[in-house]
Amino acid sequence: MLNLANLRTLLSRVLAPPGLHTVALFTPEGELVCYASDPSKTKDHVRVLVGLSTETWQETREQHIGRVDFEQGHLLVLPIDSPKKEEDDDPLMLLALSSEASVPWEVLEIKGGKLVEHLVKPVSQLSRTLAVSPPPVSPRADRGTR
Questions:
Q1: Which of 38, 70, 35, 43 is nearest to 56 (CA)?
Q2: Is the separation of the CB atoms in 34 and 8 below 8 Å?
Q3: What is the pLDDT of residue 85?
Q4: What is the rounded end-to-end Cα distance, in angstroms, of the chain?
Q5: Of the four listed, 14, 49, 87, 116, which is most buried by Cβ atoms within 10 Å?
C-alpha cells in the first residue's frame, strides 16, 4: 500500500539537484498526490509543473510518454498503469520529472522508468481498494422521516 512518507523518500532518491530538481506523482485529472523537489522550488512551482504535465499528457497520451521543453528545462510525463488496464482508459497515476535542459532525456527516462516500476504494484493495489470500497454512508441518510 502507498505510504506518503515512504513515497516521498522514494521520489527524493531520484532527485539530483540542481539538474533533476522535481518529481511529482499526480492523478490524470491533475490532483497532486506527492512530490519531492529541490528546497529552492516552491509548492506553487510544483503545482504549475503538475498543470503543465497534465496538459502535456492529454496531448501526448497516444505515445505513452510526454516530453516538453519549456523555459525552465525538460519535463517528462510517464503513466503508471495497471497491467490489466484497457487501452482507452486513463492511467492510474502520472509521474512527472522536471530538470534543467542540461540533463539528457535518456537520464530522465531511465530514472522515471525505474520509479514507475516501483510504483505500479502499490498504485494498482490502491486502485483496486478504491474500486471496491463502498461509499460512506451519510448520517443524515439514516434519519428517515419522522
A1: 70
A2: yes
A3: 57
A4: 43
A5: 49
